[in-house]
Amino acid sequence: MSASFAPECTEAKQKYDDCFNNWYTEKFLKGKSMQNECEDLWIEYKECVEANLVKKGIKPMLDEAEKEAPFEKGGVPLDNSDEKK
Amino acid sequence: MKLFESSCSFNYPWSQVTAANWRKYPNEKSTHVVAVDVLRREVHPITGILRSERLITCEQKIPKWIALMVGGQIRSYVREVSEVDPVNQTLTMRSCNMTMNNILSVYEVVKYVPDNESPFSKTTFEQCAEIKAYSTFQRLTDKIEEWSIERFDSNAKLGKQGFESVLKIFSENLNKSGKLIDEYSEKLKASGKIIDGYSDKASVAISEVGESLKTGITDTSSLLYKTKEKIKHQFFGN
């Protein structure tokens, strides 16, 4: 299982990944659940990641990338919005 | 700007391919991908589409002097946004490099959909990348783009075989236990035979050239630096 970019987040990440992978195959793909059921593990992992994105100076790069290709648009760059979905 | 397109098919059902996709790293061969992090993940309440944003961290073994030139930066980062539509059965991944994108920017779209003819047993993979190099010398820009495309092409072919081996082990585990086990990477290591014959850089790619392009970016930027230095030397001496 892959590590986190911040070593101190790896443990939380792996716990979350385990839960997610199981949810993905057992529930999501089978149409049994639309709710991501790994919420608690996710919150713990996410807090760790967010703090480290700032600490390691990655946050500004991500903000820029998000502006150019918003998450809500599925990562399609704004200057490329005619791309067929 | 240059475009690269390729497609192929995998002999596994779409659902297995998409599940294996989340578990691709680490693997012995693509050691340059040192971390994969999920930044955001949501299920759309109406469409049911699962959207994820990930940060992929790569570490290249590049010569120290090049590392110094690029500001000591050995780590490179790629942002990827993916969408899984379980109703229409599509997995789309869009990725962009965030580091060194002043030299070379690559925007890649990868799609996995059930095969037209055998939708229950095969999955079609389509990939398209837009490669833009930035340089004050047009000829150099062209050269770098051409070189990147060539690299993309060779890595795409080998990458397909790499993903095949991950899928094979993954589906064996699936059949054996009826449940997905997360030890396929261990097995991958053990079954060196399967992945014999590809270079590191090839299996780096594991199918989407997202991975191989990350290697390409670092390589290309070092190439660019070297060439720039040469040009400087020719024109200005030293």
TrEMBL record, chain A:
Keyword Cytoplasm carried by entry: no
One GO term (biological process): phospholipid translocation
GO MF annotation list: phosphatidic acid transfer activity
Keyword terms, alphabetized: Disulfide bond
PROSITE patterns reported for this sequence: CHCH
One Gene Ontology CC term in the entry: mitochondrial intermembrane space
Pfam family, one: UPF0203
Entry-linked PANTHER family: TP53-REGULATED INHIBITOR OF APOPTOSIS 1 (PTHR46403)
Family: Belongs to the TRIAP1/MDM35 family.
Record-given protein name: Mitochondrial distribution and morphology protein 35
UniProtKB/TrEMBL annotation, chain B:
Domain annotation PRELI/MSF1: ranges: 1-175
GO CC annotations, alphabetized: mitochondrial intermembrane space
Pfam (any one): PRELI
Entry-linked InterPro entries: PRELI/MSF1_dom, Slowmo/Ups
Protein name: PRELI/MSF1 domain-containing protein
